[in-house]
């Protein structure tokens, strides 16, 4: 009788083998999920940078066709294009694509002119234009763009970095950089990983 019992072979997997397979599958799934999230986050930055480059080139062509100077005004929340009417910079209400664009709250911008970071207080000395500023109402501030697009197609050199704000950044600090050197088309670099 003992011989009968020992001759019966077990068929199937043990509980430990099944649990080990489930663990391996779980680890592989989480690795795939992290890669997918990382790739998707870079896509949002890439999309924002590509949109900016496309709208900038549209603005350059609009300025050449209409023989007007345009300017790029970059803020903490986004950017907009303005036109020069001969006396002051004004918004362009007739072109929706060039109107102010607000970036998602997770994305920040950093503008650099000639490899020097820009601070709004350093753009123009306010004392130089005190007489002109007196003409404006107290709540109305004159518009001063950081980048100029001339009607001939020339642009002032700049680079604009798109990156995630600290509270939205993941482990890898990636950014996309859009650069314009004296004329269009702009170049897009990225993803650039900072350590």
TrEMBL record:
Membrane topology label: Single-pass membrane protein
GO BP terms, alphabetized: protein secretion by the type II secretion system
Keyword Cell membrane among record annotations: yes
Cellular component terms per the entry's GO annotation: plasma membrane; type II protein secretion system complex
Subcellular compartments: Cell inner membrane
Top-level taxon of origin: Bacteria
Annotated TM spans: 12-36
Gene3D superfamilies according to UniProt: minor pseudopilin epsh domain (3.55.40.10)
InterPro entries membership: N_methyl_site (IPR012902), Pilin-like (IPR045584), T2SS_protein-GspH (IPR002416), TypeII_GspH (IPR049875)
Keywords: Cell inner membrane, Cell membrane, Membrane, Methylation, Transmembrane, Transmembrane helix
Cited NCBIfam families: IV_pilin_GFxxxE (TIGR02532), typeII_sec_gspH (TIGR01708)
Name this polypeptide is given: Type II secretion system protein H
Gene of this entry: gspH
């Amino acid at each position: 009788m003992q011989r009968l019992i020992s001759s019966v072979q077990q068929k199937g997997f043990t509980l430990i083998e099944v649990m080990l397979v489930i663990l391996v599958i779980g680890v592989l799934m989480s690795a795939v999920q992290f890669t997918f999230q990382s790739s998707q986050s870079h896509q949002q930055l890439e999309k924002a940078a590509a949109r900016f480059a496309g709208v900038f080139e549209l603005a350059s062509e609009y300025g050449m066709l209409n023989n007007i100077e345009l300017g790029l005004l970059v803020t903490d929340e986004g950017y907009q294009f303005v036109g020069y009417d001969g006396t002051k910079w004004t918004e362009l209400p007739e072109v929706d694509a060039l109107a102010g664009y607000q970036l998602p709250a997770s994305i920040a911008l950093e503008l650099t002119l000639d490899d020097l970071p820009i601070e709004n207080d350093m753009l123009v000395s306010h004392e130089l234009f005190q007489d002109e500023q007196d003409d404006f109402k107290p709540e109305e501030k004159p518009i001063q763009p950081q980048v100029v697009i001339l009607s001939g197609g020339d642009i002032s050199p700049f680079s604009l970095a798109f990156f995630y704000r600290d509270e939205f950044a993941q482990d890898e600090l990636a950014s996309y950089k859009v650069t314009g050197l004296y004329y269009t088309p702009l170049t897009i670099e990225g993803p650039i990983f900072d350590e």
